[in-house]
TrEMBL record, chain A:
One of its GO terms (cellular component) is endoplasmic reticulum membrane. Keywords: Endoplasmic reticulum, Glycosyltransferase, GPI-anchor biosynthesis, Membrane, Transferase, Transmembrane, Transmembrane helix. GO terms for molecular function: alpha-1,4-mannosyltransferase activity; GPI mannosyltransferase activity. The keyword Transmembrane applies. Its main location: endoplasmic reticulum. It comes from Heliornis fulica (sungrebe). The gene is Pigm. It is a multi-pass membrane protein. The chain crosses the membrane at residues 7-28, 225-246, 283-301, 306-324, 354-374, 380-401. The lineage of its organism: Eukaryota, Metazoa, Chordata, Craniata, Vertebrata. This is GPI alpha-1,4-mannosyltransferase I, catalytic subunit. It is found in: Endoplasmic reticulum membrane.
UniProtKB/TrEMBL annotation, chain B:
InterPro entries: PIG-X/PBN1, PIGX. The gene is Pigx. GO terms for cellular component: endoplasmic reticulum membrane. The chain crosses the membrane at residues 123-146. It comes from Heliornis fulica. Belongs to the PIGX family. This is Phosphatidylinositol-glycan biosynthesis class X protein. The lineage of its organism: Eukaryota, Metazoa, Chordata, Craniata, Vertebrata.
């Protein structure tokens, strides 16, 4: 028992040192070089926190499109030190790892396997390290999503729903988890109560449509309704309080902007060039809709097919959502990387295949970053190359996802883990 | 120090939707030479509309207007004239000072920014190939989901 704790403690310690090192390096680079290490968003958070400390609305700060809670949390940036926020996000990272570890143990993974998954996929992964040390707040959403999934695993529906409501308030994307959570809760209820309950009748269904209809009916059960009520209340309460404090600006910037956002500037999304060229044409609306349909279809099918394993389903959801979204930046990858430690024990593939897929993922990003650098910092017209790299990156992401799906196995092999030790 | 008027700028807007703004840059005396002032300003171009046939748009950066302040005790002949511009004395917007335009000769020619833009003639190809790729990629994932999914 103490061995497990010390292994996790060592991983946490190493992760903390690495992140603190990056924060210190960031302070140096910001002062010494022209290209700042700290993300522009962190400047926005700090300015908004300053406004809140003066008793004004954080939405006076242009491009502040987050929850007021974040500005409130970062007011020590103004009173203590500007690096406070980054340290808070680093702590968020580590807390997320601890929750992921607990969730893995709850799902039946051995201590060593759980620690290994958390360490490789999250704690020692350079991407979340860079994201938090640069001052992006993704660690907080990751923490809330992991807490939601942990509480569902443990069976505390109320706590899960509260975390979920808060997560949706902070970032809109967890809203897509509503369907898998609803389907999952009704399946757990059925497996708990056995075949006695008529609602769980598993007679042969003649059609796919009939199967879908049965699912819809089964979703309306106690657990799902309780989850919906608590999450809805938390979200409504936060919305009402902040609307009362900050008015229409809050709704516009914190919620509506993200739902209607269309960024024509270059980003990882495969749609960016199409949206840029057709921004002012009459086809703009229909193309936007056409871009939304594959995302919607994939999310629906993934929910219906994998809801029994909620964690895997949410991982697929987020990965599909990010890859097929109209806007995609590298911060978004953290949204599904935080679920990777929980998914890893169930995806049985060889080390070589895993490393090859990881390598392909980085190659895809590199092929995009190179022409994007020349476009943004050197002024070369590399639009076609950036666009083609975006399409290729989508293909790589789709290939990796299909490989993960085809190597997924439901049970976590605890015996195999013991043998490997 | 710099003052932007208006102070709320939409930094994400493309060029055709962006509003004009005025930037007041307060220059510091250059320590390396007396009666010299220096300032450095990074410039980042906005996205422009896609063009019909040229790969880039030319934006001319004209010389800035140089203003001198009559807020210290040194008398200059310009200070006797009525004030031309009323602008903040320094970074704070509270107290206005009177500023006078100083005639100067730019030592460099006009700077021209070459901003890359998308080409409209690519529209059909880009739309078709993008949508085709997304359909193919979604089919790849759909096939995996339907083949390995849990339907029981």
């Amino acid at each position: 028992m103490s061995g497990e704790r010390s292994a996790l403690g060592a991983a946490l310690g190493a992760a903390l040192l690495a992140r603190l090192g990056l924060v210190l390096y960031g302070v140096y680079q910001d002062g010494a070089m022209r290209v700042r290490y700290t993300d522009v968003d962190y400047r926005v958070f700090t300015d908004a926190a300053r406004l809140v400390a003066e008793g004004r609305s954080p939405y006076r700060r242009a491009t502040y499109r987050y929850t007021p809670l974040l500005a409130w949390l970062l007011t020590p940036n103004v009173y203590l030190a500007e690096a406070f926020g980054k340290l808070l996000f680093v702590v968020g990272d580590l807390a997320a790892a601890v929750i992921a570890y607990q969730a893995l143990r709850q799902r039946g993974a051995g201590a060593r396997q759980a620690c290994g998954c958390c360490a490789t996929a999250w704690l020692l992964n350079p991407l979340p390290m860079a994201v938090s040390s640069r001052g992006n707040a993704e660690a907080l959403v990751a923490l809330l999503v992991l807490a939601t999934l942990y509480f569902v695993e443990v069976g505390s529906i109320g706590k899960a729903a509260a975390c979920y409501g808060l997560a949706v308030h902070v970032k809109i994307y967890p809203l897509t988890y509503a369907l898998p959570v609803a389907l999952h809760l009704q399946s757990r209820r059925c497996s708990r109560e056995g075949a006695i309950n008529a609602g769980c009748d598993r007679k042969a269904r003649p059609t796919f449509a009939g199967y879908l209809w049965q699912l819809c009916v089964k979703m309306l059960n106690c657990d799902t309704l309780f989850f919906g009520a608590v999450a809805g209340s938390v979200l409504a309460a936060l919305t009402i309080v902040f609307y009362h404090l900050y008015g229409w600006e809050f709704l516009e910037h914190a919620y509506l902007y993200h739902l209607t956002r269309r960024d024509i500037r270059h980003n990882f999304s495969p749609y960016f060039y199409m949206l840029y060229l057709t921004a002012e044409s009459k086809w703009s609306f229909f193309l936007g809709l056409a871009a939304f349909l594959p995302q919607l279809l994939l999310l629906l099918v993934a929910s219906v097919v994998f809801y029994r394993d909620l964690v895997f389903c949410c991982f697929l959801h987020t990965a599909i959502f990010v890859s097929f979204n109209k806007v995609c930046t590298s911060q978004y990858f953290v949204w599904y990387i935080c679920l990777l430690p929980l998914v890893m024990p169930n995806v049985k593939m060889s080390w070589r295949r895993g490393l090859l897929l990881l390598f392909l993922w980085f190659v895809g990003q590199g092929l995009w970053l190179a022409p994007a650098y020349f476009l943004e910092f050197r002024g070369y017209n590399t639009f076609l190359l950036v666009w083609l790299a975006g399409l290729f990156f989508l293909f790589i992401n789709s290939f990796i996802l299909s490989q993960i799906i085809s190597h997924y196995q439901k049970e976590v092999r605890v015996a195999k883990d013991l043998k490997q030790q | 120090q710099a003052v932007l008027i208006p102070d709320a700028v939409d930094v994400e807007a493309p060029e055709y939707l962006a509003t004009d703004l005025l930037l007041l840059l307060y220059m510091e005396p250059d320590p390396r030479c007396s009666s010299c002032f220096s300032a450095a300003l990074p410039v980042h171009g906005r996205y422009h509309r896609p063009a019909e046939d040229s790969e880039e748009v030319l934006v001319v950066l004209k010389s800035p207007e140089v203003l001198a302040c009559c807020c210290d005790n040194r008398l200059r002949t310009e200070c006797w004239k009525p004030a031309e511009v009323e602008a903040p004395c320094s970074g704070t917007v509270d107290s206005p000072c009177r500023w006078y335009s100083v005639t100067h000769k730019p030592t460099y020619e006009e700077l021209i920014l070459h901003i890359p833009v998308g080409l409209r003639q690519h529209s059909s190809l880009v739309c078709a190939l993008t949508l085709l790729t997304t359909v193919l990629c979604s089919s790849l994932i759909l096939a995996a989901l339907c083949k390995h999914g849990q339907f029981s």
